[in-house]
Design goal:
With 450 residues, the protein is mainly α. It is 83% helix and 0% strand. Helix 1 packs parallel to helix 7.
Length: 450
């Protein structure tokens, strides 16, 4: 079997699906970067406070990504059969779940912001700034969840450009209102960290409004309407539960695990947190394309299986595996090239810059393994219906190895940040061997529509 399939239409489809998603991720990274720069100008305490408060937003976002991704496993395969009726039943379940999670997260963040911030930091000033940010951010969750899940499902049926439109407009809205409210421009009050949260809230309202108008006026494949939320079918709800639940749990475990590891960094001090915030913006930037390919892999593999072309799906899976290695190497090189420019872009102390450089050196290696894991687990294996594999390796490698190692090396032994950071990312390295084995075994291919 060829490593690279000889099918020009396949590569054209990969590019057609990947580029808009990559550009959307690039814009999202741009928003993160501008938030970090603008809040960082206020000081490292404010930057650390917003960064740690955003762990709740991160968990919520990943949870909804899990809902969308789990839904997408089914919708991609059913779209291969052009079974729109079944897709609508599955979408209705998806929206109801996202709504419930959005309300719950909003209430928790509004009622217990102080307690949440205490989980991530011992520094009173960092906690105080984080509380200011979190109380306003809580109002974004419901709308953000609906937006994420809507865009996720639309991708599985080949509608990818709307996400680029949504996040392009959101970028400018966010940056503009950050500028207005953080610094008190155009006659507005100077709200500092609260201003950043308000800017994000306005951007989330904008995103939600655009996607709802698109779904009602322009979307021409699924024609999902509000009345469809009232329609249920026990068989489809059960199917959603069997397929989406492992993905949702997988993403929740990964997100909560990542947030747990941020506790290690938070307890090591605001300099470490600020440095990691800078590094993560660069990681997001260099990983945008393999994230786009990962999402396109889920759609392409799912559609191919839905069409009953199992051998072709296996061939394409091997090609995606090779592509993941190439993109990972490329991302690591770009990260090393951008390192000095990115670090000097921020108005932070020399100590923070030095730590950021050390973390980036480690990240430049780790990003190769992240590329393989992203494209294989989130793309190929989920698209192929193998939803329990990612759950298994996250439980074993993240929760049983990386997290205990992070707490032991960072908080007990007090090792240098380079050693601690490598330990908290060791799960990415360990996943890759199993990813290669699983793809080559062919056991991941499961037609969920029969």
């Amino acid at each position: 079997m060829q490593i690279f399939v000889r099918d020009k239409s396949f590569y054209k489809t990969v590019l057609t699906l990947s580029l808009p998603i990559a550009l959307q991720n690039l814009i999202t990274t741009g928003v993160s970067m501008m938030d970090t720069v603008m809040i960082g100008a206020l000081g490292e305490v404010q930057l650390s406070g917003s960064s740690l408060a955003n762990q709740i937003s991160f968990i919520f976002m990943i949870f909804n990504f899990g809902i969308a991704s789990g839904t997408g496993v089914l919708t991609a395969q059913y779209w291969g059969k052009r079974d729109v009726t079944t897709i609508k039943y599955i979408m209705a379940t998806m929206y109801r779940l996202s709504f419930i999670i959005g309300i719950f997260t909003m209430l928790i963040s509004l009622v217990f912001p102080q307690q949440i911030m205490h989980i991530f930091s011992n520094e009173a000033d960092v906690i105080a700034e984080g509380v200011k940010y979190l109380q306003i951010m809580s109002f974004t969750y419901l709308m953000y969840g609906i937006t994420i899940t809507s865009i996720g499902v639309l991708r599985t049926v080949g509608t990818v450009k709307i996400s680029l439109v949504v996040y392009s407009i959101s970028f400018f809205v966010n940056v503009f209102f950050n500028w207005v409210f953080i610094y008190g421009n155009l006659g507005a009050p100077r709200l500092e960290i609260r201003g950043a949260a308000i800017g994000t809230l306005i951007a989330r309202v904008t995103e939600f409004t655009i996607i709802m108008i698109f779904m009602r006026v322009k979307e021409d494949k699924l024609h999902f309407r509000l009345k469809d939320l009232l329609h249920t079918q026990k068989e489809r709800t059960a199917e959603f539960g069997r397929t989406a639940t492992p993905v949702i749990i997988n993403e929740l475990l990964w997100a909560s695990g990542t947030a747990t590891l941020s506790i290690v960094l938070g307890k090591m001090g605001s300099v470490i947190v600020a440095a990691n915030s800078i590094c993560q913006v660069v990681v997001q930037f260099v990983s945008v394309f393999f994230q786009g390919v990962g999402n396109s892999a889920a759609v392409i593999i799912g559609n191919t299986i839905g069409q009953g072309e199992y051998d072709k799906a296996k061939e394409r899976a091997k090609t995606f595996l090779a592509i993941s290695v190439i993109l990972g190497v490329f991302a690591g090189i770009i990260m090393l090239v951008l390192k000095p420019l990115a670090i000097n872009f921020y108005n932070v102390s020399d100590a923070t810059k030095q730590v950021a450089a050390q973390i980036m050196n480690v990240s430049a290696v780790i990003v190769l393994f992240q590329s393989v894991a992203m494209i294989t687990i989130v793309g190929t294996l989920r698209g192929g219906g193998d939803v329990k594999f990612g759950l298994f390796i996250d439980i074993v490698f993240l929760w049983m190895i990386a997290i205990p190692l992070g707490f032991f090396t960072g908080l007990q032994l007090g090792l240098p940040i380079v050693a601690v950071y490598f330990c908290i990312k060791i799960d990415e390295v360990l996943k890759c061997g199993l990813c290669f084995y699983r793809v080559n075994s062919g056991k991941w291919l499961k037609d969920l529509t029969i």
